[in-house]
Amino acid sequence: MELREWADRILMTPDLEAKLASPPRGLTDVAPGAAVRPLVPARPPGLEFCGRRQTPPMPPPQTFAEPRRRAIAHHIMANHELQALEVMAF
Predict the structure, then answer these.
(1) Percent helix, strand and coil across the chain, each rounded to 5?
(2) Angle at the Cα of 10 (from 21 to 72), degrees rounded to 5?
């Protein structure tokens, strides 16, 4: 499989499991092709991008004893990592 094909899958699939799957063995970069930039990577329902200043701020570490605050922190960091994966696929 070409690296380009694997990167396109990451960007264009709305399936979170497929986005986070390990790359297949034997990836090649023989035919990278021209750069293509989708407007927005595909996301699963419920993980769409939102507008600026619509997300909650990162809770302070001293509040992590509260389950709701921990959940917000986990969500923010997981989304950050998913965005990093998508940026690298670009």
Answers:
(1) 45, 0, 50
(2) 75
What sign does the dihedral 71-73-74-78 (CA atoms) show?
Answer: positive
CA–CA dist 38, 63 (Å, integer): 38
Q: How much is the pTM?
A: 0.67
Contact at 8 Å (CB) between 78 and 70? no
The token pair at 37 is 């930039």
CA distance 86 to 6: 12
pLDDT (tens digit per residue) in 12-21? 889 888 888 8
CA distance 35 to 14: 21
